[in-house]
Amino acid sequence: MARRLILLLTFTAALLAAFQWTNQKKEKDRDQSIRNVSGVVTLPDGTAIAGAVVQLKNMKTLQVRSFITQDKGAYQFQNLPVTIEFELRADYKQYASETRTLSVFDKRLDAIMNLKLEPKQDQK
């Protein structure tokens, strides 16, 4: 019985080591010139909101891409060049978030930027 337990523990340790090595290799082999940004859009009370429009603005070309949040308020933009700065903001009915910047100095390849909606200011 002890022999089986030792064999099982050895096999489990080998599997964990192989899994860790594979993940390290994937991260090392990943293209360092592109990144992703994702996050959750919430209302002022912290509730995640589906149906909010998240806009991603390329500050070099001024091109804007949009994403409509899913069930749990999640959004994502993929394959963004690390050499370009981007602005993010969200809108939903009478709410808007502050504009957030994904800087070229931010070296994260998978940036998480949550956006909190606040009531829009009356425009005169």
Walk me through the structure.
The protein is α+β, with helices and mostly antiparallel strands and 124 residues long. Helix content is 23%, strand content 40%. The protein has one helix and nine strands. The chain has one helix at residues 2-29, and strands spanning 34-42, 53-58, 64-68, 74-81, 86-92, 95-97, 100-102, 110-112, 115-119. Strands 1, 2, 3, 4, 5, 6, 7, 8 and 9 form a nine-stranded mixed β-sheet that branches. Strand 2 (53-58) and strand 3 (64-68) form a beta hairpin. The longest helix has 28 residues, at 2-29. It is elongated and about 75 Å long. It starts with a helix and ends in a 5-residue tail after the last strand. 16% of the residues are buried.
Number of helical elements: 1
Helix content: 10-25%
Percent of sequence in beta strands: 35-45%
Number of strands: 9
Mean pLDDT equals 87
Radius of gyration: 21 Å
Coarse shape:
elongated
Report low-confidence residues grouped into runs of 5 or more.
none
**What series of H and E elements makes up the topology?**
HEEEEEEEEE
Query: What does the main sheet amount to?
Result: 9 strands, mixed
Termini Cα gap: 80 Å
How does the helix and strand content classify structurally? alpha+beta
Observed structural traits:
alpha+beta, 9 strands, 40% strand, 124 residues, single chain, nine-stranded mixed beta sheet, 1 helix
List the helices and strands and how they pair.
Layout: H1 2-29, E1 34-42, E2 53-58, E3 64-68, E4 74-81, E5 86-92, E6 95-97, E7 100-102, E8 110-112, E9 115-119
Parallel strand pairs: 1-8, 1-9
Antiparallel strand pairs: 1-4, 2-3, 2-5, 5-6, 5-7, 6-9
